[in-house]
Amino acid sequence: MVDLEVLDQLELSAAEFAVLTRVMRAVHPETNEAHVTLQEISHDVVMARPNVSRVMRDLRDRRVLYTEARGLHRVNPHIMFRGSNQDWDVATETAKEPIWRRA
Prior knowledge:
CATH topology: Arc Repressor Mutant, subunit A
Strand order of the largest sheet: 1-3-2
Structural class: mainly alpha
Order of helices and strands: HHEHHEEH
Number of domains: 1
């Protein structure tokens, strides 16, 4: 489930949108974790790895993405969640308050 209204509010650049959607495609339906490396993202979105790293940092700063370990990411559940509505309710209650605005 993707909340298109929230996604629209993010005011993403083209690079941010490309990186975010690549991570979203990698999200596992049962764990809501995306196992994807910077190298894979760089290759798939045709962007230099340092630029992908910068974009990922910006998305983390805005709490759009969370990086839990090298190559392991989560999309803020206010934006995207795979699972039941009940599980989504729990995930959004425990997630940090989203920050969408640019600093």
